[in-house]
Amino acid sequence: MGWRIVVGADDAGQAYKDVLRDLLAADPRVDRVEDIGVAEGGSTAYPSIAVEAAERVAAGTADRAVLVCGTGLGMAIAAIKVRGIRAVTAHDSYSVERSILSNDAHVLALGARVIGLELAKRLVAEWLEYRFDPASPSAAKVDLIEKHEETA
Q1: What is its pathway (predicted)?
Q2: I need a labelling partner for 83 at 20 to 30 A (CA). Which of 50, 94, 149, 152 fits?
Q3: Contact at 8 Å (CB) between 109 and 57?
């Protein structure tokens, strides 16, 4: 089974999001890409986009999400407010790898004003390779995060 990915951006990340959407759609590891906006010339506050993407992942209609804003920080902060979602901002290969292998993150947020487009494309391509191993030593830590969320 291939990935079901939702992508979204605010106006600062729209150009990157469009390129990343097309990259994902052409990737044989991806079955479906849903673009929830914003469209070229559009303007939607990043929290609305991030929460919608995270809700789709939490509901199981998407496996993961890629979100882009100016820094990636606002998108990650907003997405993580959705129960059951682990979102990260990552701008290097090692952080992308660990976001999945150590933390089973569902949402990758990138900053269009922080990294170049070629690096963003590389990071998303690498991100598709990783799958969390529920038998790994990190699984107990992810379980602790989930238990905390249940009581929060």
Answers
A1: Carbohydrate metabolism; erythritol degradation; Carbohydrate metabolism; D-threitol degradation
A2: 94
A3: no
Residues near 105 by beta carbon (within 8 Å), at least 6 away in sequence = 86, 87, 88, 99
Is the CB of residue 40 less than 8 Å from the CB of residue 18? yes
Q: Which CATH number fits domain 3-151: 1.10.10.10, 3.10.180.10, 3.40.1400.10, 1.10.3720.10?
A: 3.40.1400.10
Residue 38 in tokens = 């914003």
What are the domain boundaries of the chain? 3-151
List, in order, residues 6 or more apart from 145 with CB less than 8 Å away.
86, 103
Residue 116 CA to residue 132 CA, distance in Å, equals 27
Give percent of the chain above pLDDT 90: 90
- Residues marked as catalytic: 69
In tens, the pLDDT along 48-58 reads 999 999 999 99
